Amino acid sequence: MEGPVSAQARMLNLVLRYAVKPRLEHNPDVIRLRREVDAVARVAPDFPRNVVRRADAVGGVAVERHTAIGHRGGRTLLYLHGGAFVAGSPRTHRGIAGRLARGVGAETVVPDYRLAPEHPFPAALADAVAVYAALLEEAAAPDAVALVGDSAGGNLAFALLLRLKADGLPLPAAAVGLSPFVDMTGSGDSMSGNAGLDPFLDAAGLPLVVDAYASGRDLRDPLLSPLFGDLSGLPPCFLQCGGSEILRDDAVRLHAALCAAGTPATLEVWPEMPHVWQAFARFLPEARTAIAHMVAFLDATLAAGGKHGLAAVA
């Protein structure tokens, strides 16, 4: 993606680099990280307009449903939140979930999947499978369902696709990955090449969360690192990542692997954007534009049934 970087983005990068990243580097405690991530969501909540939110349970998993005003059923987004498998919740991702629901004219379902280290692999993936299967039982047509996930949630989205394919279950119409963490071996060049450029993520801290989620397992298992799976036969995919983040090459290599497998895939690399900048849409113009691009992809890919929401005003 080309164009000047906004003043808001430059300020966000400074705040992340000097106020947030040092705390993550100096306090590599996953339980503390979880509390701090949730505290940010409580202190700075994001509730998009013209969206109704309610708590529910789907497939035995607690979820939040975000429904665009005017939505009458049909389109469904299953959003798998990020948080390095150890943090995050539907609360932390209300802004992006609501904006996608509003833009696509859909219901966005965000599972409160189980977190590591209390619940290591495959607990989170099992919860994602249970929610997806239950949505289909609710009469959500696969051609009107899309998966969306950021960071660790992007990992879960593509692991879910591989699991569904292996089990012979209906695949959704599309998948979106935002800075997806799809290689737990950390073999991408950007892991070291962008270590000093990334204003948010610390490469040295990734082994901690990987160990919390996948201790003692083969990290090349495609359900842990979807990059190494058979990506043929998957639905159209849309990927976004920041050009300066350590996970840039996870998205770049995933895009190349999808294309090599014959799966339609689009990649956007946004210069100077931090990890999952789309979550800052309340004040970041690049986040609102990125969400608009996602909405355009989903609108073109999902079946039209039930699209009665608002126009894509992220």
Strand order of the largest sheet: 1-2-4-3-5-6-7-8
Span between termini: 18 Å
In the CATH scheme, what's the topology name? Answer: Rossmann fold
User: Quick one: how many beta strands?
Assistant: 8
Protein name: Alpha/beta hydrolase
Keywords: Hydrolase
Pfam families: Abhydrolase_3
GO molecular function: hydrolase activity
List the helices and strands and how they pair.
Layout: H1 7-26, H2 30-43, E1 51-58, E2 61-68, E3 76-80, H3 94-104, E4 107-111, H4 123-137, E5 145-150, H5 152-167, E6 174-178, H6 190-193, H7 206-214, E7 237-242, H8 248-260, E8 265-270, H9 285-301
Parallel strand pairs: 3-4, 3-5, 5-6, 6-7, 7-8
Antiparallel strand pairs: 1-2, 2-4
Helix pairs in contact: 3-9, 4-5
Keywords: Hydrolase
Family: Belongs to the 'GDXG' lipolytic enzyme family.
Organism: Methylopila musalis
Fold and architecture overview:
Belongs to the 'GDXG' lipolytic enzyme family. One of its GO terms (molecular function) is hydrolase activity. Keywords: Hydrolase. It comes from Methylopila musalis. InterPro entries: AB_hydrolase_3 (IPR013094), AB_hydrolase_fold (IPR029058), GDXG_lipolytic_enzyme (IPR050300), Lipase_GDXG_HIS_AS (IPR002168). Helices cover 38% and strands 16% of the residues. The chain is α/β, with parallel strands linked by helices and 314 residues long. The chain has one domain (7-301): Alpha/Beta hydrolase fold, catalytic domain (Rossmann fold, 3-Layer(aba) Sandwich), CATH 3.40.50.1820. It has an eight-stranded mixed beta sheet, sandwiched between helices. Strand 3 (76-80), helix 3 and strand 4 form a beta-alpha-beta unit. The longest helix is centred in the N-terminal third of the chain and has 20 residues, at 7-26. The protein is globular and about 45 Å long.
